[in-house]
Write a structure and sequence with these properties.
The chain is 40% helix and 20% strand. By secondary structure, it is an alpha+beta fold. The protein has an eight-stranded mixed sheet, sandwiched between helices. It has a five-stranded mixed sheet with strand order 15-16-14-18-17, sandwiched between helices. The N and C termini lie far apart (68 Å). The mean pLDDT is 92.
Length: 678
C-alpha cells in the first residue's frame, strides 16, 4: 500500500510491487496522478530534473512544438510573458530549457544551486499545467501576418531550419519514406492553419498530471521540490471534455523531385553497425552499380536508425538486399561490437553537447530501467550478437542509444602562435599519438571517439587531441598514455611535460600568452538574418564583471521584447574566457539593425545605476552564464584547457558592484558607437 510522506502528505511512496529499488530509482506519486522517479543511487553532485509530457503527433502541424513555445509565455502564478527569459538571465543554472521530440515534450534543467533549481522547477510545473495560452501571445510566439509575409518566433525558427540543406534533405526523406514520418516540429506552410483553439484542445487532452512524470537526480531537498510541484498540481481538477477532432495538416513543401526510398528490415542496432561499412568508397561504388544510394542513418524526424536507400525503377531490390546481407555476414563479431559501442558514444556525445552531462546521465540511467515508457527506453546492446538482426516493421518513434556516462581525456600542447616549425612538429606528434591510441583501443576492444582541435589565446596556440570514452575506461587510457607516450619523442622542442588526471600536457618555452591591455573593442556584423556583436575586453577587467554585464543586458526589457515580439527566433549571449570576449547574437532576425539598436539602448539603460535587486539577479545570472559555458559538459576538460593559458572557470565577482557595472556599461557603450563594422 502506498504511504504518504509525513512532510508532504499529497505525495505517496509507491508500494513495493511498483518499485524497482535494485535499479537505484525510487518512485513517488502525487494525488493528481503525476509520477516522480528519483535516482537515489546517483553520485551526481549537480541537480538534474525533467518534466516529461507524452505528446504523440501524426501530422506536420507542429502543434506539440507550438505548445512547447506557448506554455512558457505566462501561467497562473507567472502571468508575465517575460518571466522565462528573465529567469534564464538570473538563475545560476547550467541548462534551463524545453525540447519537443517526436513522442514527448520535455522541460528540463541542471544546476548546482538548489535555490535556482527549485525556482526553475516551480516555474516549469506551473507553466506546463496552468498556462495562459493567450491569443496575443500566439501571434507573437507562433505566427502572424506581416504585410505579404509572416512573422513570429516559431515561424522564424522553422525558416532558419529550412535554410539548412541538411534539414531540407531530412524533410525529403521523411516525406518519401514508408511509413511517412511526420514533420512533428511543424512547417512554415502548416503554421498558417494552426490556431490557439487547437493548442488549447491539445493541452487539455495531453498535458495532464496523470500522464506526466518528473525525473530527478542529485541531492534535491525533496520536500521543497514536492512543495513547488504541489503548488502547480493542487486544485487542477479532472480533465475537461475535449470534443473529437479530425485536425490534421500535411505540409506541401517540396525541395526537388520526390525520392523513392527502400528501407531494409534490420534492427536499429544492426543498422548502426552496418551503416559505416556501407559508407566506404568501394561499397558506395558497388551500390551505384545496383542503382542504389545509401541515405543517412537517422534524422530529427526519423530518430530510429535504419538502412534507407534511394532507389529508382532500374534498381534490383533483390540484389541490393543480398548484397547488404553479404556485408552483414562478413562483418566480424569484434567489428560489430566495436561499431555498436562507437555509435553509442557518438549519440551520447551529441546529447551531452546539446543538453549537458547531467541530463545525458539522467535520461540514460532511466532508459535502462524496466519501468521506463517505450519512448524513453533504450535497447540493451550488451548481448549484441544474440539480438535479432531483422524486425518486422519500421517505426517512427523516439529512439535512445544506451550510452553510459562519458568523460573527455586530452593531450594538450601549448606553443607560440608564430612558431610555425614547433607547431608543425607538435601536430605531427599528436597525429602519431592518435594512431597509437586508436590501435590500443582496438586491441583492448574499448570504443572511443577522438578528434583534433586548436584553440588560440592571444599569442599562444593550444593544440590538442581529445578522446570521449565511457568513464569506466578512463583509468586504462590514462595509464596507457602515461606509460607509453614520452617527452623523448619531442625532446627537440624545449618545454615542460606533465602527467595529469585528465591526460597529458606539454608547454613550450616562450609560449606564455601576452594578454591585451588598453580599451574595450567592439566588432559589429549583420547578416541577412542575424546580428553579431563581439566585445573584446582587456584582461585587467575581471571575468566575473563581464559575465554580470552580459546577463544584465539580457535582463533588460528592450532585449526581451525583441525576442518576445516574434521579430527573431533567439537573442543570445555567450562568454569566451579563452579570448576574453562577450558576444551577442540573434538568429533568424527580421531586421538585425533594429536588434543592434535594442542592444545599444540596453547598454544606455545600464549606464545608469540599477537597483540592488536587479544587480543581485545579474550576479546570479553571471555565475550561470559561466557555468553553462564551461561546466554544463566536459567540465574537467574545460578547466584543463583554460589552465593551459592561465585562465580559470572560478571567476571572481568581488570586484563588481552597482557603480562599477554602470561604469563598465558606459565604456562598452562608447565602444559600440564606434565599432569595427564588417
Amino acid at each position: 500500500m502506498a504511504k504518504p510522506h509525513p512532510a508532504a502528505p499529497d505525495w505517496f511512496l509507491l508500494p513495493p510491487d511498483q518499485q524497482q529499488l535494485e535499479t537505484g530509482w525510487v518512485g513517488y506519486r502525487h494525488t493528481s496522478g503525476m509520477l516522480h522517479w528519483h535516482h537515489a543511487a546517483s553520485d551526481e553532485d549537480r541537480l538534474s530534473a525533467s518534466i516529461i509530457i507524452p505528446t504523440p503527433v501524426e501530422d506536420d502541424s507542429g502543434v506539440t512544438h507550438a505548445l512547447e513555445h506557448m506554455v512558457l509565455r505566462g501561467s497562473m502564478r507567472y502571468p508575465d510573458p517575460e518571466t522565462f527569459l528573465s529567469l534564464r538571465a538570473e538563475l545560476a543554472l547550467l541548462e534551463f530549457n524545453a525540447t519537443t521530440q517526436i513522442q514527448s515534450t520535455r522541460f528540463h534543467l541542471t544546476g548546482y544551486d538548489p535555490s535556482s533549481a527549485l525556482r526553475a522547477v516551480g516555474f516549469f510545473a506551473d507553466s506546463v499545467f496552468s498556462p495562459q495560452l493567450a491569443d496575443e501571445d500566439f501571434e507573437e510566439e507562433i505566427i502572424r501576418e506581416q504585410g505579404c509575409d509572416f512573422d513570429g518566433a516559431l515561424y522564424r525558427e522553422l525558416e532558419a531550419y529550412i535554410r539548412n540543406p541538411t534539414f531540407r534533405d531530412s524533410i525529403a526523406r521523411a516525406q518519401c519514406s514508408s511509413p511517412r514520418a511526420p514533420l512533428f516540429g511543424g512547417m512554415p506552410d502548416t503554421l498558417e492553419d494552426l490556431d490557439i483553439v487547437t493548442l488549447r484542445r491539445y493541452h487539455q487532452a495531453h498535458y495532464r498530471p496523470e500522464f506526466s512524470m518528473i525525473l530527478t537526480a542529485g541531492s534535491w531537498p525533496m520536500v521543497a521540490l514536492w512543495q513547488q510541484l504541489s503548488k502547480a498540481l493542487d486544485g487542477l481538477g479532472g480533465p475537461m471534455p475535449v470534443p473529437p477532432s479530425d485536425f490534421s495538416l500535411q505540409s506541401d513543401y517540396q525541395d526537388g523531385p520526390p525520392l523513392r526510398i527502400h528501407t531494409l528490415s534490420y534492427t536499429p542496432q544492426w543498422a548502426a553497425i552496418l551503416h559505416p561499412s556501407l559508407s566506404t568508397f568501394r561499397t558506395q561504388q558497388k551500390l551505384q552499380t545496383l542503382g542504389a544510394t545509401l541515405l543517412p542513418l537517422m534524422s530529427d524526424f526519423q530518430p530510429e536508425p535504419a538502412l534507407r536507400f534511394a532507389v529508382s525503377d532500374v534498381t534490383d531490390i533483390e540484389r541490393l538486399t543480398l548484397f547488404v546481407d553479404d556485408v552483414h555476414r562478413r562483418t566480424p563479431s569484434k567489428r560489430a561490437i566495436w561499431q555498436s559501442g562507437y555509435f553509442c558514444i557518438q549519440q551520447g556525445r551529441d546529447m551531452v553537447c546539446r543538453w549537458g552531462d547531467g541530463l545525458q546521465r539522467l535520461y540514460h540511467d532511466f532508459s535502462i530501467t524496466p519501468f521506463a515508457p517505450a519512448f524513453l527506453k533504450s535497447d540493451d546492446a550488451n548481448d549484441l550478437l544474440n539480438l535479432p538482426v531483422r524486425r518486422e516493421n519500421t517505426s517512427n518513434g523516439e529512439w535512445l542509444s544506451p550510452c553510459p556516462s562519458l568523460r573527455r581525456m586530452s593531450i594538450l600542447c601549448r606553443c607560440n602562435m608564430r612558431d610555425e616549425e614547433t607547431r608543425a612538429s607538435l601536430r605531427q606528434w599528436l597525429v602519431l599519438s592518435q594512431q597509437r591510441t586508436l590501435r590500443w583501443a582496438w586491441m583492448q576492444s574499448k570504443p572511443m571517439l577522438g578528434s583534433m582541435g586548436e584553440w588560440q589565446c592571444a599569442n599562444a596556440l593550444v593544440l590538442g587531441y581529445t578522446v570521449d570514452l565511457p568513464e569506466s575506461d578512463v583509468k586504462a587510457l590514462r595509464d596507457f598514455w602515461h606509460n607509453t607516450l614520452s617527452d623523448t619523442e619531442i625532446s627537440a622542442i624545449d618545454g615542460e611535460w606533465a602527467h595529469t588526471s585528465n591526460g597529458l600536457t606539454f608547454t613550450c618555452v616562450k609560449s606564455d600568452p601576452v594578454f591585451r591591455t588598453g580599451a574595450i573593442m567592439a566588432s559589429h556584423k549583420d547578416d541577412d538574418n542575424a546580428m553579431h556583436v563581439t566585445l573584446s575586453f582587456p584582461h585587467h577587467i575581471d571575468a566575473g564583471a563581464i559575465a554580470v554585464l552580459g546577463q544584465a543586458v539580457m535582463a533588460t526589457s528592450l532585449v526581451k521584447k525583441r525576442r518576445l515580439g516574434g521579430r527573431c527566433y533567439s537573442f543570445g549571449v555567450n562568454l569566451d574566457l579563452m579570448n576574453y570576449e562577450l558576444t551577442f547574437d540573434t538568429v533568424s532576425d527580421s531586421d538585425p539593425s533594429v536588434s543592434f539598436i535594442a542592444l545599444l539602448k540596453a547598454f544606455e539603460e545600464l549606464a545608469s545605476p540599477i537597483d540592488k535587486e536587479c544587480f543581485e539577479r545579474a550576479c546570479r545570472g553571471g555565475l550561470g552564464l559561466v557555468s553553462a559555458r564551461y561546466n554544463k559538459s566536459q567540465a574537467r576538460f574545460h578547466r584543463a584547457l583554460l589552465g593551459m593559458v592561465g585562465q580559470s572557470v572560478a571567476v571572481d565577482f568581488a570586484s563588481i558592484n552597482i557603480q562599477t557595472l554602470s561604469q563598465l556599461a558606459t565604456t562598452v557603450l562608447s565602444a559600440l558607437k564606434h565599432p569595427t563594422v564588417h
